[in-house]
Amino acid sequence: MLYNNIQIDWLGHSSVKIKTKDKIIYIDPYNILNEKEKADYILITHNHHDHCSLADISRLVKQETIAIISADCQSTINKLNMPIHTRILEPKNSVSLEGLRVLAIPAYNTNKPNHPKDEYWNGYVLDVESVKIYHSGDTDLIPEMNSLSGKIDIALLCVGGKFTMNSDEASEAAFVIKPKIAIPIHYGSVIGTDRDALNFVQLCKKNNIDGRILEKR
């Protein structure tokens, strides 16, 4: 999907690629087999294997890559076969880099044990070329989403259920956040189906939110 000269691709599960005229950004790369372009930035939301995958990160890094990570991902990043720059972010903190500002947003479960709040795991708001993109990470519908209301251009929201929001809950999150476009992620691989994504989009449209399913690259 092209949005204001920024290419946004869903690579399966929670993996997203964002390409500007001079930067390549990956978020939570997992089972990335066909991507040839190396990363300027890699963002990792938390240390679960389907988000912080050493094999996939290794395929994408170059010496100039900057990894923006939660603290518990550091041990995985240290295993890379080349040194890269890392920036550790805790929720509610931000970092500004060349062409990119990243704000960490809390990501946690409210009624299940898989993603405790006290782990300080992340969602991210990326501000790139004046476009604000929110990647939810693995989360439930949480009060912190209220702070994003009306401020987000593209919201990438987990819909798979069981470990995260299901599609109904994700549509409620979209209603709270009110992005210009809402896109389902975290389905089609480890958990969640195409039906979850379709239900999410249909519910978004009932709330006058532009919900779109991106075809997997």
Give the CA-based shape.
Answer: globular
Question: Counting H and I runs of at least 4 residues, what is the number of helices?
Answer: 4
Radius of gyration: 16 Å
Question: What is the CATH-assigned architecture?
Answer: 4-Layer Sandwich
* Amino-to-carboxy terminus distance: 11 Å
Helix content: 10-25%
Report the biggest beta sheet as strand number plus sense, adding barrel if it closes.
Answer: 7 strands, mixed
Oligomeric status: single chain
Please state the average pLDDT score: 97
- Can you tell me the CATH topology? Metallo-beta-lactamase, Chain A
Major sheet strand order: 1-2-3-4-5-6-7
Strand content: 25-35%
SSE order, as H and E? Answer: EEEEEHEHEEEEEEHEH
Low-confidence stretches: none
How many separate domains make up the residues? 1
What structural class should be given to the helix and strand makeup? alpha/beta
CATH superfamily: Ribonuclease Z/Hydroxyacylglutathione hydrolase-like
CATH class: Alpha Beta
Structural summary, described in words:
With 217 residues, the chain is of the alpha/beta class. The protein has a single domain, classed as Metallo-beta-lactamase, Chain A, CATH 3.60.15. Helix content is 16%, strand content 29%. It contains 4 helices and 13 strands. A 7-stranded mixed β-sheet has the order 1-2-3-4-5-6-7, with no helix packed on it. A hairpin with a 4-residue loop joins β3 and β4. α3 runs parallel beside α4. The longest helix has 13 residues. 45% of the residues are buried. The mean pLDDT is 97.
Main attributes?
217 residues, alpha/beta, Metallo-beta-lactamase, Chain A, 6-stranded mixed β-sheet, 29% strand
